[in-house]
Amino acid sequence: MVRNCFGNYRDVLREISYSPLMAEHLSYLDSRSHAYVYESNGQVTYADENFAREIMQLFTIGLVWLNQDGTPKLDANGKQIEVYSNEDIMSFARAWTGFRKYQDRGNIENEQACSTCNRQDPMFIDKDRRDVFPKSDLLGGYIGDRYPLCVDLPDKMFLRKGAKYRFLGSNPLPELMEDNDKFATDPTIKRMILDSGSGLYKKLYNNGVYLNTVIL
Questions:
Q1: CA pair distance 187, 169, nearest whole angstrom
Q2: Predicted local distance difference test score (pLDDT) of residue 215
Protein backbone atom coordinates (compact mmCIF):
# COMPACT_ATOMS: atom_id res chain seq x y z
CA MET A 1 0.00 0.00 0.00
CA VAL A 2 2.83 2.40 0.83
CA ARG A 3 4.54 1.76 -2.51
CA ASN A 4 1.30 2.45 -4.39
CA CYS A 5 -0.08 5.36 -2.39
CA PHE A 6 0.56 7.73 -5.32
CA GLY A 7 -0.34 5.22 -8.01
CA ASN A 8 -3.71 3.85 -9.05
CA TYR A 9 -5.97 1.06 -7.92
CA ARG A 10 -4.97 -1.17 -10.82
CA ASP A 11 -1.37 -1.14 -9.58
CA VAL A 12 -2.56 -2.16 -6.12
CA LEU A 13 -4.63 -5.02 -7.55
CA ARG A 14 -1.68 -6.22 -9.64
CA GLU A 15 0.60 -6.22 -6.61
CA ILE A 16 -1.76 -8.15 -4.35
CA SER A 17 -2.61 -10.60 -7.14
CA TYR A 18 1.05 -11.59 -7.53
CA SER A 19 1.59 -11.76 -3.76
CA PRO A 20 2.41 -15.28 -2.48
CA LEU A 21 0.70 -14.43 0.81
CA MET A 22 -2.54 -13.50 -0.96
CA ALA A 23 -2.32 -16.66 -3.07
CA GLU A 24 -1.93 -18.78 0.05
CA HIS A 25 -4.76 -16.98 1.85
CA LEU A 26 -7.23 -17.23 -1.04
CA SER A 27 -6.01 -20.64 -2.23
CA TYR A 28 -5.13 -19.95 -5.87
CA LEU A 29 -1.45 -20.74 -5.32
CA ASP A 30 -0.50 -23.59 -7.67
CA SER A 31 -4.00 -23.69 -9.15
CA ARG A 32 -3.75 -25.68 -12.39
CA SER A 33 -5.75 -25.81 -15.56
CA HIS A 34 -8.10 -28.70 -16.24
CA ALA A 35 -6.02 -29.70 -19.27
CA TYR A 36 -2.79 -29.84 -17.27
CA VAL A 37 -4.30 -32.00 -14.53
CA TYR A 38 -6.05 -34.32 -16.98
CA GLU A 39 -2.89 -34.84 -19.03
CA SER A 40 -0.86 -35.43 -15.86
CA ASN A 41 -3.03 -37.95 -14.04
CA GLY A 42 -6.33 -38.32 -15.88
CA GLN A 43 -8.40 -36.55 -13.22
CA VAL A 44 -11.20 -34.10 -14.03
CA THR A 45 -10.78 -30.94 -11.93
CA TYR A 46 -11.74 -27.27 -12.02
CA ALA A 47 -9.67 -24.19 -11.27
CA ASP A 48 -9.86 -22.80 -7.72
CA GLU A 49 -12.62 -20.15 -7.60
CA ASN A 50 -11.78 -18.47 -4.29
CA PHE A 51 -9.74 -15.50 -5.52
CA ALA A 52 -11.87 -15.04 -8.64
CA ARG A 53 -14.92 -14.61 -6.40
CA GLU A 54 -13.29 -12.39 -3.79
CA ILE A 55 -11.61 -10.02 -6.25
CA MET A 56 -15.03 -9.39 -7.78
CA GLN A 57 -17.13 -9.28 -4.63
CA LEU A 58 -14.78 -7.57 -2.16
CA PHE A 59 -11.97 -5.86 -4.05
CA THR A 60 -13.62 -4.37 -7.13
CA ILE A 61 -17.09 -4.28 -8.66
CA GLY A 62 -19.29 -5.82 -5.96
CA LEU A 63 -22.42 -7.92 -6.24
CA VAL A 64 -24.83 -5.62 -8.14
CA TRP A 65 -24.55 -3.11 -10.97
CA LEU A 66 -24.61 0.53 -9.85
CA ASN A 67 -25.76 3.76 -11.41
CA GLN A 68 -23.46 6.78 -11.60
CA ASP A 69 -24.85 8.06 -8.29
CA GLY A 70 -24.05 4.78 -6.53
CA THR A 71 -27.62 3.47 -6.35
CA PRO A 72 -28.28 -0.13 -7.51
CA LYS A 73 -29.51 -0.69 -11.05
CA LEU A 74 -32.91 -2.36 -11.21
CA ASP A 75 -34.48 -4.65 -13.80
CA ALA A 76 -38.01 -4.40 -15.19
CA ASN A 77 -39.35 -6.11 -12.06
CA GLY A 78 -37.62 -3.72 -9.69
CA LYS A 79 -34.97 -6.25 -8.60
CA GLN A 80 -31.29 -5.44 -8.32
CA ILE A 81 -29.23 -6.65 -11.29
CA GLU A 82 -26.45 -9.02 -10.29
CA VAL A 83 -23.04 -8.35 -11.80
CA TYR A 84 -21.93 -11.94 -12.31
CA SER A 85 -23.07 -15.54 -12.10
CA ASN A 86 -21.40 -18.76 -11.02
CA GLU A 87 -20.59 -19.42 -14.68
CA ASP A 88 -18.67 -16.13 -14.79
CA ILE A 89 -16.71 -17.09 -11.68
CA MET A 90 -15.79 -20.46 -13.18
CA SER A 91 -14.48 -18.66 -16.25
CA PHE A 92 -12.55 -16.03 -14.25
CA ALA A 93 -11.04 -18.74 -12.05
CA ARG A 94 -9.24 -20.10 -15.10
CA ALA A 95 -7.42 -16.75 -15.37
CA TRP A 96 -5.77 -17.38 -11.98
CA THR A 97 -4.18 -20.70 -12.88
CA GLY A 98 -0.44 -21.19 -13.14
CA PHE A 99 0.65 -18.82 -10.34
CA ARG A 100 3.66 -20.25 -8.49
CA LYS A 101 6.25 -19.08 -5.99
CA TYR A 102 9.86 -18.49 -6.92
CA GLN A 103 12.40 -20.69 -5.22
CA ASP A 104 13.82 -19.52 -1.93
CA ARG A 105 17.02 -17.48 -2.02
CA GLY A 106 19.84 -17.06 0.48
CA ASN A 107 19.16 -13.49 1.55
CA ILE A 108 15.61 -14.18 2.78
CA GLU A 109 15.15 -15.14 6.41
CA ASN A 110 12.65 -17.96 6.80
CA GLU A 111 11.79 -20.05 9.81
CA GLN A 112 11.40 -23.02 7.48
CA ALA A 113 14.16 -24.26 5.21
CA CYS A 114 12.48 -25.26 1.96
CA SER A 115 12.70 -24.41 -1.72
CA THR A 116 9.10 -23.14 -1.94
CA CYS A 117 8.97 -20.84 1.11
CA ASN A 118 9.69 -17.60 -0.79
CA ARG A 119 6.93 -15.24 0.33
CA GLN A 120 8.89 -12.09 -0.55
CA ASP A 121 9.14 -12.09 -4.33
CA PRO A 122 6.07 -11.69 -6.57
CA MET A 123 4.91 -14.98 -8.07
CA PHE A 124 5.49 -16.02 -11.66
CA ILE A 125 3.10 -17.65 -14.13
CA ASP A 126 3.93 -21.18 -15.19
CA LYS A 127 2.74 -21.36 -18.80
CA ASP A 128 2.39 -25.14 -18.71
CA ARG A 129 -0.06 -25.04 -15.79
CA ARG A 130 -2.00 -22.01 -17.03
CA ASP A 131 -5.37 -22.30 -18.75
CA VAL A 132 -4.83 -21.07 -22.30
CA PHE A 133 -8.46 -20.89 -23.44
CA PRO A 134 -10.55 -17.67 -23.72
CA LYS A 135 -12.18 -16.27 -20.58
CA SER A 136 -15.54 -14.51 -20.83
CA ASP A 137 -16.04 -10.95 -19.61
CA LEU A 138 -19.12 -9.42 -17.96
CA LEU A 139 -20.54 -7.85 -21.14
CA GLY A 140 -21.04 -10.92 -23.31
CA GLY A 141 -17.57 -10.88 -24.88
CA TYR A 142 -14.17 -12.21 -23.95
CA ILE A 143 -11.26 -10.75 -22.02
CA GLY A 144 -8.75 -9.28 -24.46
CA ASP A 145 -11.23 -8.99 -27.34
CA ARG A 146 -9.81 -5.65 -28.48
CA TYR A 147 -6.17 -6.79 -28.50
CA PRO A 148 -4.73 -7.68 -31.92
CA LEU A 149 -4.23 -11.34 -32.76
CA CYS A 150 -0.82 -12.59 -33.83
CA VAL A 151 -2.20 -13.18 -37.34
CA ASP A 152 -3.26 -9.51 -37.49
CA LEU A 153 0.22 -8.12 -36.76
CA PRO A 154 2.15 -6.52 -39.64
CA ASP A 155 4.11 -8.90 -41.83
CA LYS A 156 7.71 -9.69 -40.82
CA MET A 157 7.46 -8.07 -37.40
CA PHE A 158 10.64 -9.94 -36.45
CA LEU A 159 12.59 -7.72 -38.86
CA ARG A 160 11.22 -4.37 -37.69
CA LYS A 161 13.39 -1.87 -35.88
CA GLY A 162 13.42 -2.65 -32.18
CA ALA A 163 12.89 -6.43 -32.57
CA LYS A 164 14.79 -8.24 -29.81
CA TYR A 165 16.66 -11.54 -30.07
CA ARG A 166 18.06 -13.36 -27.03
CA PHE A 167 20.85 -15.93 -27.18
CA LEU A 168 19.63 -19.06 -25.39
CA GLY A 169 22.57 -21.36 -26.05
CA SER A 170 24.06 -23.43 -28.82
CA ASN A 171 22.67 -26.82 -27.84
CA PRO A 172 19.50 -27.69 -29.81
CA LEU A 173 18.42 -30.23 -27.19
CA PRO A 174 15.49 -28.88 -25.14
CA GLU A 175 17.16 -29.68 -21.82
CA LEU A 176 15.23 -27.06 -19.85
CA MET A 177 11.88 -27.67 -21.53
CA GLU A 178 9.38 -30.50 -21.78
CA ASP A 179 9.84 -31.24 -25.48
CA ASN A 180 11.11 -34.67 -26.36
CA ASP A 181 14.84 -34.83 -27.08
CA LYS A 182 14.16 -36.23 -30.54
CA PHE A 183 13.07 -32.72 -31.51
CA ALA A 184 16.77 -31.90 -31.99
CA THR A 185 17.50 -34.80 -34.35
CA ASP A 186 14.20 -35.52 -36.11
CA PRO A 187 14.72 -34.53 -39.79
CA THR A 188 10.97 -34.30 -40.42
CA ILE A 189 10.66 -31.27 -38.15
CA LYS A 190 10.93 -28.03 -40.08
CA ARG A 191 13.47 -25.49 -38.86
CA MET A 192 14.26 -22.00 -40.03
CA ILE A 193 17.84 -21.68 -41.30
CA LEU A 194 19.10 -18.21 -42.16
CA ASP A 195 21.04 -17.63 -45.35
CA SER A 196 24.57 -16.49 -44.53
CA GLY A 197 24.13 -13.50 -46.79
CA SER A 198 21.04 -12.12 -45.07
CA GLY A 199 21.18 -8.98 -42.95
CA LEU A 200 19.60 -10.77 -39.98
CA TYR A 201 22.23 -13.53 -40.12
CA LYS A 202 25.06 -11.00 -40.10
CA LYS A 203 23.48 -9.11 -37.21
CA LEU A 204 23.06 -12.25 -35.09
CA TYR A 205 26.37 -13.83 -36.09
CA ASN A 206 28.30 -10.61 -35.34
CA ASN A 207 31.55 -12.00 -36.80
CA GLY A 208 31.39 -14.96 -34.42
CA VAL A 209 31.06 -12.84 -31.27
CA TYR A 210 27.61 -13.83 -30.08
CA LEU A 211 25.85 -11.24 -27.95
CA ASN A 212 23.37 -12.20 -25.24
CA THR A 213 20.83 -9.75 -26.66
CA VAL A 214 20.57 -8.28 -30.17
CA ILE A 215 18.17 -5.43 -30.91
CA LEU A 216 17.58 -4.55 -34.54
A1: 21
A2: 94
- In the chain, what are the domain boundaries? 1-147, 151-215
Phi, psi (degrees; rounded to nearest 5) at 80:
-65, 140
**Of 120, 88, 129, which is closest to residue 102 (Cα–Cα)?**
120
Report pLDDT digits (tens) over 128-179: 999 999 999 998 899 887 787 878 888 888 888 999 998 877 666 655 556 6
Burial class (CB in 10 A: 0-12, 13-18, 19+), 95: middle
> Residue 178 corresponds to which amino acid?
E
How many Å apart are CA 200 and CA 16, to the nearest integer?
Answer: 42
Beta strands in 10-161 (DSSP E): 99-100, 124-125
Q: Please state whether the predicted TM-score (pTM) of the whole model is above 0.85.
A: no
* Secondary structure (3-state) at 64: strand
